[in-house]
Amino acid sequence: MTQKHTTPDGLVIVDKPSGFTSHDVVAKMRGIARTRRVGHAGTLDPMATGVLVLGIEKATKLLGHLALTEKEYLGTIRLGQNTLTDDAEGEITSSTDASGVTRDAIDAGVAKLTGDIMQVPSKVSAIKINGVRSYKRARDGEEFDIPARPVTVSSFGVYDVREAVAEDGTAVLDLVVSVVCSSGTYIRALARDLGADLGVGGHLTALRRTRVGPYKLDAARTLDQLQQELTVMPVAEAAAAAFRRWDVDARRARLLTNGVRLDMPDEYAGAGTVAVFDPEGRFLALVEEQRGKAKSLAVFG
Hints:
- With 301 residues, this protein is of the alpha+beta class.
- It is 23% helix and 37% strand.
- The strands form 4 sheets. Strands 1, 2, 3, 4, 7, 10, 11, 12, 13 and 14 form a 10-stranded mixed β-sheet that branches. Strands 15-16-17-18 form a 4-stranded mixed β-sheet, with helices on both faces.
């Protein structure tokens, strides 16, 4: 008797390869997991590698709530050249000798881009301006401005400064950096803005995302590894890792799954998204406190 294939609900932490869009990875995962219900929590540029969080089946309902978390990156910023896309994918638009830039100047520039800052996203990005993707407007040669938006760069460290010579003969500096930031922060915009502040231009030449919220690179699997063995983090485990936990008794669990708004204990006031579990440890729902009651965001139980 042939066993019916059942796709597990849960998260898959992928180590995205360079050259793939996030949508390419989703398409590949649909084939591996044999389901159409696959989504991702926050895109990665094609050039970038590293942690991409995918949801399968019921776990796709978690994704919108996971996207608003802190992210961590390792990257290389090249000072001395601007590009059309603010990264190595775009053509070089200007070159300036960067050999005279001092470490003190770099550290001062980095300090200005740390903390709560206003950032203008890269023009070649997926942000919509009046309903049209920014990169489409840029490719069509349109002149347009993207409004600055608030982002938080909680840490921006420079580990190494390497002298190099670019292909066009320009003396450049390659900075090995680590960044911890809020969702929606563009690392290539940090590279562009640092280069602009130092007067020599800058762009991103390499980027690896090492963490999204609580999900780290050591839990990530390559697409080839996932093809061999589909490693899925069960949806309850994923929720417990990402959100504050609220354990309720059987009566409350029953009321919650029947759509009743429960009174929430004071300790969860202002806690944001909270994961609710029943006495058996089953994951029931994501809720948030609203005027002392549990407002349901997504129901799983």
